[in-house]
């Protein structure tokens, strides 16, 4: 390869060993290397339950691909700690997502702090235990408020904002294997999760025309605020197995961690022709397979 340099008298050819020649090409290559922006650069993602195990792992995974994150959680101290792990150019919004107007307030915060919203990861939830025939009605309804109605409120508020913005978007739900594979004493958890899975499909149908994709993740047995170390220890001991064997109770025989679930969300976000879909992140469970 040859280059041409200019002096006062016009153009003259220079050889490959000329310093100008070397400098020119190394600078060009450096420029090319820097030319590929991360896939989510300039995109804003809201993660509910963002101070929890799966929520924070998901926020970090999106931030690593260039997104700016709005963490939503009810626990201010945990939110502050989570935000400090994400670094600059991210935001946090402390509220109870099951309260009236919580979704609208969170959308306003996203617009004010970061200029809009491109992805919602509707993640916050909690597992209410107990046999359905014995469970008090108000306990069952409270489980629905968080594990279904809050998802519905955030998803519809996000969809309206995305429609107004006119640049498409994505809604991702953290569902659960409970939506398809009931667990003993987990009816008040699985029933709203199953409704949330249907919500995902319905919104995928209704929002596709606006370029808004809607997908979900069904995970199982992730070490977190729901499945605590103390609970894992107790369950493993009750079954007479090690914690490792208990947590690896799936087809692959390996523990599934929060960052694996986060990768599921990121991969769905990157799959530009996929909507109305649930992926499993559970190490393999024949009873929880969708197809
Ligand atoms: N851990 C698992 O094995 C597992 C499996 C499948 C699905 N999930 C789902 O993953 C999601 C995240 O749970 P996790 O396992 O990371 O648990 P986690 O307890 O670590 O995180 C949940 C977060 O949600 C927040 N939260 C709960 N209620 C809230 C409310 N009313 N308003 C605002 N924030 C609220 C909590 O403060 C917490 O930070 C849940 O929807 C859960 O159902 C978990």
Q: What does the secondary structure layout of this molecule look like, with pairings?
A:
Blueprint: E1 4-7, E2 10-13, H1 19-33, E3 44-48, H2 53-64, E4 68-73, H3 76-86, E5 91-94, H4 102-114, E6 119-122, H5 137-165, E7 169-174, H6 187-207, E8 212-219, H7 229-239, H8 243-247, H9 258-270, E9 277-281
Parallel strand pairs: 3-4, 3-6, 4-5, 6-7, 7-8, 8-9
Antiparallel strand pairs: 1-2
The structure holds nicotinamide-adenine-dinucleotide.
Nicotinamide-adenine-dinucleotide binds at residues 49, 51-55, 73-75, 78, 96-98, 123-126, 146, 174, 176, 219-222, 224-227.
Globally, the shape reads globular
Number of strands: 9
Listed once per kind, the bound small molecules are: nicotinamide-adenine-dinucleotide
Considering the protein shown, what is the CATH homologous superfamily of the largest domain?
Answer: NAD(P)-binding Rossmann-like Domain
The CATH topology name of the largest domain reads Rossmann fold
Largest sheet: 7 strands, parallel
Going across the major beta sheet, what is the strand order? Answer: 5-4-3-6-7-8-9
How many domains, in number, for the residues?
2
Radius of gyration: 24 Å
Task: Bin the strand percentage.
Answer: 15-25%
Query: Any low-confidence stretches, pLDDT <50, length ≥5?
Result: 1-16
